[in-house]
Amino acid sequence: MSSTPQDPFYSSPFGPFYRRHTPYMVQPEYRVYEMNKRLQSRTEDSDNLWWDAFATEFFEDDATLTLSFCLEDGPKRYTIGRTLIPRYFSTVFEGGVTDLYYILKHSKESYHNSSITVDCDQCAMVTQHGKPMFTKVCTEGRLILEFTFDDLMRIKTWHFTIRQYRELVPRSILAMHAQDPQVLDQLSKNITRMGLTNFTLNYLRLCVILEPMQELMSRHKTYNLSPRDCLKTCLFQKWQRMVAPPAEPTRQPTTKRRKRKNSTSSTSNSSAGNNANSAGSKKKTPAANLSLSSQGLGAIPNCSLNPGRNGDLCHSAAVTPSGQFKEKH
Q1: Is residue 155 within 8 Å of residue 149, measured between CB atoms?
Q2: Residues 100 and 127: beta-carbon distance below 8 Å
Q3: Helices (DSSP H) in 106-148: which residue ranges?
Q4: How far, in Å, CA of 296 to CA of 318, rounded?
Q5: Quick check: 97 and 39 in contact, CB under 8 A?
Q6: Would you say 160 and 143 are in contact if contact means Cβ atoms under 8 Å apart?
Q7: pTM greater than 0.70 (yes/no)
Q8: Of 30, 146, 299, 306, which is the most exposed, with the fewest CB atoms less than 10 Å away?
Q9: Angle at 261 between CA 260 and CA 266, to 5 degrees
Q10: Alpha-carbon span 299 to 302, nearest angstrom
Q11: Residues of 123-157 as b/e, b for ≥16 C-beta within 10 angstroms?
Q12: Of 115, 116, 51, which Cα lies nearest the Cα of 83?
């Protein structure tokens, strides 16, 4: 059947033509196809640099990846940031997977000012397992992708909700071990949980601890501080944000019409007003100058890694005007 202009894209001697008039050379679904091709080009020698390049090509710097599924002990939802995404894809192959690709059927696209959303209710994540046995796993669910509205068209949010999965074993393998009850019993057991390997599930559980520590890790890498100093500075900045008063909206000054008065009365009133203002400013001066920066050291509630009395982890620390921490004994 020859391609027609009603297709999403069709070939012609002058190049591809698309159904939608967008400033992109490809459609959002084609980016998923390109990601599948990049995953197929992976080799056993692919290191962390290869996975970082893969994530940089297809994910934004502030991208998030979310997986939702239900296990025996209840529903689960894991969300990881951009720095943990490369490791997530690598754990899939570390669990015995030799091939990974995504299939989108009947997806819907919606265009916004700065993003494109692809909503596919019939998405399938297909993984080919070489160990512990040759098995093909089809994980079905709903995939929602948000792409940036630019030339790179990278993924900003990835949300995959798993509904069901199937593990397929070739009939030839079953025929080879038809007379071996132990092998048949092993073949009847699932090798994944909701289509995910144990390597991936353990990594997602670990990300629950690693994700909140990204701020400490980035601060340690940027400023070369010790873990204790990183924790102190992060807690101090959060404490500052908590005690900082909310910004008040600016009000436009209201203009009032002056009333004419006698020169003598106006002179006496102005002198009395100046005296009152000077007295008021003298009273407000000590309160206005009361701040942490005007003092030599300011006591700040902070947390220590060593427990104090009654198991309390909090103690008092001090910060100098230069911004350095000083513990109070």
Answers
A1: no
A2: yes
A3: none
A4: 10
A5: no
A6: yes
A7: no
A8: 306
A9: 125
A10: 9
A11: bbbbbebeeebebebebbbebbbbbebeeebbbbb
A12: 51
